[in-house]
């Protein structure tokens, strides 16, 4: 399965080809694997996009490639932007409005993370993750708020599932993403009366992503063993969830979390997780018990 989308997505997907015609999306972390595919899906379905990132070359190259997906698409890459610095983000917003005319959708996707146990995690390392993932998400909405209000737009935070239970080596990101979910919920309540929706998408194990290669040493067959749907996620699964949440089909959905993980977090650390699904299948396939 490819990690990026091409034109065949428009034919294959359940979505109308011009679903987002006239809309503009502002995406932090848009050159990374998850957020890039979110941008690709929205552009393929008619939107224009601003891709925001720290690395100038990577950000500009991604924007150029995404622009080729649809004739007439306008995709700008704005590099050297750190979501921790609200003023630089504000400049990226000004440039987006100047070049693309407006902002309807905001994806707060920029993230920083690494595996580290509590004993070795410094206060500054913890702060770095909180600053990128949580403060950066706040800053992203802060600077786009005027546009969101004007256009009755929608916000999508990219979160995770690892704060639903205790995950070792992931203290910083777990705490940050719990905060991101709380931020989204509060914004849904505060901004709902303005016609602005705020939701969160929580990816699980998505194959071919930076998160998987950074955080998981497991082979594919090992990684998918504890996923109820018995496969790793694809970037297209993320694209579909993203399109849904921005589409009119979700016009009454706000303050929600869409978990796209094949059901994985439900079994991740529960009793029997080590033997999953062997003990479960043994029980299901065993001869019928006594009473109904
Ligand atoms: C322990 C570490 C460390 C590591 C950095 N630090 N890496 N500590 N183990 N592997 C410490 C440093 O020693 C320093 O603390 C502090 O963190 C800040 O480090 P800097 O390098 O100065 O920070 P900065 O340049 O701002 O870089 C931020 C970063 C970096 C998060 C540390 O990894 C980064 O920029 N990452 C961006 C890309 C990324 O991480 N993407 C992840 C996407 S995946 P001291 O005390 O020495 O000063 C993802 C999935 C989440 O987010 C969900 C999972 C399911």
Task: Explain how this protein is built.
β4 (105-108), α5 and β5 (154-158) form a beta-alpha-beta unit. The protein is 43% helix and 12% strand. The protein has helices at residues 8-12, 33-44, 56-67, 86-100, 123-151, 171-191, 210-215, 220-225, 235-246, 278-285; strands at 24-28, 48-52, 75-78, 105-108, 154-158, 197-203, 257-260. It is of the alpha/beta class and 292 residues long. 42% of the residues are buried. It is globular, with a radius of gyration of 20 Å. The chain has one domain (8-262, 270-284): NAD(P)-binding Rossmann-like Domain (Rossmann fold, 3-Layer(aba) Sandwich), CATH 3.40.50. Strands 3-2-1-4-5-6-7 form a 7-stranded parallel beta sheet, sandwiched between helices. Hexanoyl-coenzyme A binds at residues 111-114, 116, 120, 122, 124-125, 128-129, 132, 160, 162, 173, 210-211, 214-215. Hexanoyl-coenzyme A is lined by residues 111-114, 116, 120, 122, 124-125, 128-129, 132, 160, 162, 173, 210-211, 214-215.
């Amino acid at each position: 399965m490819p990690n990026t989308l091409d034109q065949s997505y428009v034919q294959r997907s359940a979505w109308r080809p011009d679903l987002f015609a006239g809309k503009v999306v502002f995406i932090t972390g848009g050159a990374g694997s998850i957020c890039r595919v979110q941008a690709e899906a929205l552009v393929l379905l008619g939107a224009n996009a601003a891709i925001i990132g720290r690395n100038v070359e990577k950000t500009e190259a991604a924007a150029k490639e995404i622009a080729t997906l649809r004739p007439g698409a306008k995709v700008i890459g704005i590099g050297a932007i750190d979501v921790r610095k609200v003023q630089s983000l504000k400049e990226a917003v000004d440039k987006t409005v100047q070049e693309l005319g407006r902002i309807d959708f905001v994806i707060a996707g920029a993230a920083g993370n690494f595996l580290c146990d509590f004993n070795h995690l410094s206060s500054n390392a913890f702060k770095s993750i909180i600053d990128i993932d949580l403060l950066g998400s706040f800053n992203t909405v802060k600077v786009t708020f005027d546009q969101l209000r004007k256009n009755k737009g929608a916000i999508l935070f990219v979160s995770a599932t690892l704060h639903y239970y205790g995950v070792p080596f992931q203290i910083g990101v777990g705490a940050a993403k719990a905060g991101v979910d709380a931020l989204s919920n509060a914004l849904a309540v505060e901004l709902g009366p303005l016609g602005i929706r705020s939701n969160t998408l929580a990816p699980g194990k998505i194959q071919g992503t930076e998160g998987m290669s950074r955080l998981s040493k497991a082979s594919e067959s090992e990684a998918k063993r504890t996923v109820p749907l018995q496969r790793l996620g694809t970037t297209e699964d993320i694209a579909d969830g993203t399109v849904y949440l921005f589409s009119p089909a979700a016009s009454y959905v706000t303050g929600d979390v869409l978990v796209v993980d094949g059901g994985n977090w439900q079994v991740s650390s529960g009793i029997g997780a080590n033997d999953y699904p062997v003990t479960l299948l043994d029980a299901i396939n065993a001869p019928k018990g006594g009473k109904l």
